[in-house]
């Protein structure tokens, strides 16, 4: 057992435990849906949320805050705020399939096209930042946006401060293929032509958002990935209080692998190498299930061996879209998550 930080200990005391009567940690009774927390960022997290909202009514997204490109990077630099882009994408993914939800999803994702300063800004980014300035509380503002959109879940930033991503990259400069450089910025790391060895965040000991830590501790299931491995998935493990919660939580943990290596960031990575990199950054982390698309795993035995180091079983399922693109199908991914929750979960309050 690792030593708890004072804040994590306080949150643990504030989080009620399961009773012997079958009630959940928040007084839930049998028949309720599982309490799920999904961690990540960008399109990968959006895909996971679009699937998970189909199978649970108790869903929280914990989103990376290291983005420094595009509209988010401009707002972050000009106003000193958390980058809102990945938070906006998560909110859009949680919008319902009715006219209200889909209309608002399109509105907040809309980007202005002009010759002026508004060019490239997403409506949702401006709305989120405006509410942050009005309310002075990032969590309260995101909750308010979620209510406006009718979002089927809650969206939280993983840290209370904007983070800078730094990576050790071999061959970032093609003219010096054997040299290892420190590459700064999420947008630069994501597009590097070199081989990423490791990542860290600045500041090195960022504060976690207390509500995010509490959600992980109170979950029935925690889902990590899919997404950009070094710039969206691993950063959650670099926030000490959040990592402590992921190690200590009584929730089951599932890692959802990408459908294909990402050009630049994980070029040439096998599914098992994704796990090896994750283990280097968080050696104390345990997993229960590793989910992968059956067509994306050429060496099932090697993946199973890598998963065993985390204490995890491998679940293979068809989760990709039929058009051949490296994107998850929300219905198929939902079916895979639902099967995992039912087959691998303890007898929970939702059973």
Write up what this structure looks like.
The protein is an alpha/beta fold and 351 residues long. The strands form two sheets. Strands 3-2-1-7-8-9-10 form a seven-stranded parallel beta sheet, with helices on both faces. α9 runs parallel beside α11 (240-248). Helices cover 39% and strands 16% of the residues. α2 (42-52) links the parallel β1 and β2. Residues 1-31 and 347-351 have low confidence and may be disordered. It has 14 helices and ten strands.
Concise structural overview:
The chain is of the alpha/beta class. The chain has 14 helices and ten strands.
Low-confidence stretches: 1-31, 347-351
Please report which band the strand proportion falls in: under 5%, 5-15%, 15-25%, 25-35%, 35-45% or over 45%. Answer: 15-25%
What global shape is seen? globular
CA radius of gyration is 19 Å
The biggest beta sheet is recorded as: 7 strands, parallel
Number of DSSP strands?
10
- Report strand order across the widest sheet: 3-2-1-7-8-9-10
What structural class do you assign from the helix and strand content? alpha/beta
Average pLDDT rating: 88
Helix content: 25-40%
- What count of helical segments does DSSP give? 14
Assembly state here?
Answer: single chain
Could you state the order of secondary-structure elements as H and E? HEHEHHHHHEEEHEHEHHEHEHEH
The separation of the N and C termini measures: 30 Å
């Amino acid at each position: 057992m690792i030593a708890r930080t004072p804040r994590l200990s306080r949150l643990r005391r504030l989080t009620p435990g399961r009773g012997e009567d079958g009630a959940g940690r928040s007084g839930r009774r049998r028949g309720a849906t599982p309490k799920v927390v999904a961690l990540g960022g960008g399109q990968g997290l959006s895909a996971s949320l679009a699937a998970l909202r189909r199978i649970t009514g108790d869903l929280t997204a914990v989103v990376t805050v290291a983005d420094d490109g595009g509209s988010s990077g401009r707002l972050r630099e000009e106003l000193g705020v958390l980058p809102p882009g990945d938070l906006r994408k998560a909110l859009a993914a949680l919008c319902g399939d009715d006219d209200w939800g889909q209309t608002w999803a399109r509105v907040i994702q809309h980007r202005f096209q002009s010759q002026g300063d508004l060019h490239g800004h997403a409506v949702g980014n401006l709305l989120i930042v405006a509410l942050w300035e009005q309310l002075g509380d990032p969590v309260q503002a995101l909750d308010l946006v979620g209510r406006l959109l009718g979002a089927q879940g809650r969206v939280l930033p993983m840290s209370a401060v904007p983070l800078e991503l730094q990576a050790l990259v071999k061959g970032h400069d093609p003219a010096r293929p054997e040299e290892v450089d420190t590459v700064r910025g999420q947008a630069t790391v994501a597009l590097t032509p070199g081989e990423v060895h490791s990542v860290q965040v600045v500041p090195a000991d960022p504060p976690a958002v207390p509500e995010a830590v509490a959600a992980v501790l109170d979950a029935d299931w925690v889902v990590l990935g899919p997404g950009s491995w070094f710039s969206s998935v691993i950063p959650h493990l670099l926030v000490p209080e959040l990592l402590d919660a992921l190690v200590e939580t009584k929730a089951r943990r599932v890692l959802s692998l990408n459908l294909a290596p990402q050009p630049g960031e994980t070029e040439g990575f096998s599914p098992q190498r994704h796990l090896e990199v994750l283990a280097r950054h968080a050696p104390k982390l345990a997993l229960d299930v590793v989910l992968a698309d059956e067509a994306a795993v050429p060496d099932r035995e090697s993946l199973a061996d890598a998963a065993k180091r985390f204490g995890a079983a491998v679940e293979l399922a068809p989760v990709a879209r039929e058009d051949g693109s490296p994107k998850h199908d929300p219905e198929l991914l939902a079916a895979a998550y639902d099967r995992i929750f039912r087959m691998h979960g303890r007898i929970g309050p939702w059973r």
